[in-house]
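Lab meeting, item 3. Inverse folding demo.
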């Protein structure tokens, strides 16, 4: 078994650096499209289609679907951390403003001429929006209002404005924007396993490759719904699938014989537990056995509010 990740990447403005690449040959651009209509690469066309019609929680499109996690402010830092990796940007490249508009100091490096080395995203949000829904909204507005252009081989520059003030800047790669949108559509239920990974990392656990031991997965999707966290003298195998009450019992019976390789260094002097996630409080089974517990969506939200003692209470010593 090996450690996959042992820390959380925080996009909290603390490391942001504006575009100061110092390129000798900046590319001059104009927002006005020439020629008209603009010749667009295939991935750009697909990105426009996804943003205008298919990305989740778009009240303006009958083709959309709802993903309640994207609108949940409790989970927003974990969700933005997950999705921004598809842009391949670091905390140096993302700046987030609460309401208001983007000032001229932040705007200046993106007006009229621009480098094609780094990517940058600067967005504001209105009251009630999460960080991820703000990004989706501003990107959609850039495209819907034609306030964008392409430069270089695969670079996108776009702006959103409200009442004459700039509210978003995107200087990004077309291929990365495409990957971001595709993930929004293709993996709408990513959030449960990713949320557990995020919160256990915040609690100073390490996320590890899963020791399958004597348990055979029925399909790849099932394996992806499992999170394995080790730290603080404990190991948690977290099953993030959504089950009915009967489904929990059936799944627990399938893995009850599961025992990790105790010869592995990760398991020396470590107490091991199975943890099941359930969607609804009324389906919650408090304890399945001496080595398994269930946590509900409400419990997960409490963890994100800092109630880490819930994990301590799940341990049965």
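The presenter then showed the designed sequence:
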């Amino acid at each position: 078994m090996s450690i996959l990740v042992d820390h959380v990447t925080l996009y909290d403005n603390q490391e942001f650096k504006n575009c100061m690449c110092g390129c000798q040959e900046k590319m001059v651009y104009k927002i006005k499209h020439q020629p008209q209509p603009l010749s667009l690469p295939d991935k750009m066309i697909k990105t426009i289609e996804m943003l205008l019609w298919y990305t989740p929680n778009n009240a303006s499109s009958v083709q959309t679907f709802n993903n309640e996690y994207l609108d949940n402010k409790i989970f927003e830092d974990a969700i933005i951390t997950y999705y921004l990796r598809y842009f391949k940007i670091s905390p140096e490249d993302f700046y987030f403003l609460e309401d208001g508009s983007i000032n001229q100091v932040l705007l200046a490096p993106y007006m009229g001429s621009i480098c094609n080395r780094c990517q940058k995203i600067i967005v504001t949000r209105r009251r009630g929006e999460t960080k991820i829904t703000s990004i989706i909204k501003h990107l959609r507005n850039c495209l819907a209002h034609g306030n964008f252009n392409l430069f270089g081989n695969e670079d996108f520059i776009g702006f959103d404005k409200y009442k004459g003030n700039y509210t978003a800047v995107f200087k990004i790669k077309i291929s990365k924007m495409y990957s971001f949108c595709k993930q929004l559509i293709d993996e709408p239920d990513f959030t449960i396993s990713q949320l557990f990974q995020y919160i256990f990392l915040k609690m100073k656990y390490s996320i590890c490759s899963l020791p399958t031991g004597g348990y055979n997965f029925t399909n790849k999707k099932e394996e992806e719904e499992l999170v394995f966290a080790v730290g603080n003298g404990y190991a948690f195998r977290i099953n993030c699938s959504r089950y009915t009450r009967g489904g929990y019992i059936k799944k627990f019976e399938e893995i009850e014989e599961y025992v990790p390789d105790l010869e592995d260094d990760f398991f020396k002097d470590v107490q091991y537990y199975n943890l099941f996630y359930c969607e609804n409080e009324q389906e919650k089974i408090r304890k399945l056995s001496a080595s398994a517990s269930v946590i509900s969506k409400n419990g997960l939200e409490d963890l994100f509010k800092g109630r880490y003692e819930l994990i301590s209470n799940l341990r049965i010593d």
